[in-house]
Design a protein that fits this description.
It is a single chain. By secondary structure, the chain is an alpha/beta fold. It has a single domain, classed as NagB/RpiA/CoA transferase-like (Rossmann fold, 3-Layer(aba) Sandwich). It has helices at about 1-20, 30-40, 50-65, 75-80, 115-120, 145-155, and strands spanning about 45, 70, 85-90, 100, 105, 110-115, 130-135, 140, 165, 190-195. A hairpin with a 4-residue loop joins strand 5 and strand 6. It is globular. The N and C termini lie far apart (about 60 Å).
């Protein structure tokens, strides 16, 4: 009799465990973004001080043995000039790793949204395979719709063009799984320097 109770009791517990596992988990925007970003192969470094941003940038460059990076953003140029032993190319068209900012971080998919403000007229697929992205926590939005609305709101009357995103962070994902992205696979080896500004 005891064995039968144990068997049925264990079955009830496993049904309860399965029910708990199926419940939706509500994560904050930053937790949701980080979860999806890391699952797609992104490398994430959280920074609370600007000195941490430059230290992490130095470590990324040293780890990968890069001697040249591309950067076309004036604020990021100031940070990258603090890095020892590196040449900075202000033309992002080259094959050098790119140090760049972004428009928004998309929490529900882990995507990073860019526009012509960062890329000019270049397509993401034609740029270097190696990206270092600087972003702030205030750039986190729930979904792509909020990201596009944010761009529209921030740049009233002068909405940027060439809006695109990176959502795969390992180069093995260069093969597209979505017919809408045919010929424009935006998989990159990507490091994210996320600065806490809230």
């Amino acid at each position: 009799m005891n064995i039968i109770r144990k068997l049925f009791g264990a079955h009830k517990e496993s049904v309860k465990d399965n029910f708990i596992k199926k419940q939706p988990v509500k994560l904050s925007l930053d937790d949701s973004f980080v979860h999806h970003f890391i699952n797609e192969g992104g490398k994430f470094l959280y920074c609370t001080k600007i000195d941490e941003v430059t230290d992490n940038l130095q470590n990324i460059v040293s780890e990968n043995k890069w001697d040249t990076i591309s950067c076309n953003d004036l604020d990021l140029l100031k940070l990258s000039k603090k890095i020892d032993g590196i040449t900075i190319n202000q033309n992002i068209k080259s094959n050098n790793p790119i140090f760049i900012n972004c428009e928004h971080l998309i929490a529900n998919s882990g995507e990073i949204l860019f526009s012509s403000n960062q890329l000019g007229s270049h397509k993401l697929a034609s740029l270097s395979d190696n990206f270092i992205v600087y972003a702030t926590t205030s750039q986190l939005v729930k979904n792509i719709s909020e990201g596009l609305t944010g761009i529209k709101t921030n740049f009233r009357g002068n909405i940027p063009t060439n809006i695109s995103s990176i959502k795969h962070y390992t180069l093995k994902n260069k093969v597209g799984d979505d017919f809408l992205s045919y010929g424009n696979i935006n998989a990159k080896n990507l490091y994210l320097l996320l600065f806490e500004d809230l």
